Amino acid sequence: MLFGGVMGKLSFAGELDEYLPFFRCAERMGLGKQTAFGFGQIEVQAKDK
Predict the structure, then answer these.
(1) At a CB cut-off of 8 Å and minimum separation 6, what does 19 contact?
(2) pLDDT tens digits, residue range 32-45?
(3) Which of 1, 19, 23, 42 is 20 to 30 A from 33 in CA distance terms?
(4) Rounded distance, CA 47 to CA 37, Å?
(5) Contact, 26 vs 12, CB < 8 A?
(6) CA 36 to CA 39: how far, in whole Å?
(7) CA pseudo-torsion sign 10, 46, 12, 40
(8) Contact (CB, 8 A) for 43 and 10
(9) Burial class for 30, CB neighbours closer than 10 Å (0-12, 13-18, 19+)
(10) DSSP string computed for 3-43
(11) Rounded to an integer, what distance in angstroms lies between the CA atom of residue 10 and that of residue 34?
(12) Torsion angles phi and psi, residue 24, rounded to 5
């Protein structure tokens, strides 16, 4: 099997408090396809104001 993908970093700025629960959920569940193979992991780092 051939698995392609992308790795990198993504930053958001601004008032994102209302979206943080969704990011936390995605952090636990994974995003995209091939999550059953362990792909799609993200890490959320929220900075204090």
Answers:
(1) none
(2) 888 888 888 989 98
(3) 19
(4) 30
(5) no
(6) 7
(7) positive
(8) no
(9) middle
(10) -----------S--TTTHHHHHHHHHH--SS-GGGT-----
(11) 20
(12) -65, -40
